[in-house]
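Readers outside the structure-tokenisation community will struggle with the description of the input data as it stands. What matters is that the chain and its backbone geometry are given together, residue for residue. For illustration, here is how one protein appears when written out as sequence plus structure tokens:

…
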Amino acid sequence: MSDPVFHVLPAAPEPVAPFSHAVEADGWVQLTGQMPTDPDDSTKPLPEGIEAQTRRVMDNLVLVLGELGLGLEHVISARAFLTNFERDYATMNDVYASYFPEDRRPARTCVGVTGLARGALVEIDMIAKRP
């Protein structure tokens, strides 16, 4: 196995904890879970509601992938975390699904959690593979 490369990307949202935006080894890229923070100003309030927060999270993931020369077509797996699973699951799914063609959706796990950083409603991480 090659040594991992730790990516901290200036265009990506400022990390809310001590982590890299992505870590890469042997063509596999693990993206840290993204929060619904504004990539230009992490001090701004989070968007209101699960739909807006899911869009911001997905857009942040697209931004991280793009900085690495990748896109959503390279994603093979995702994990979604929701603080209000029963209320927000269907809406999060609708927004999430809109980012992928029906025949190219990654494997995914979605779990309910008791809390997320900054009081976010959703966080999503991904694993991508370089072609």
User: Anything to note?
Assistant: The chain is about 25% helix and 25% strand. Helices lie at 49-67, 85-97.
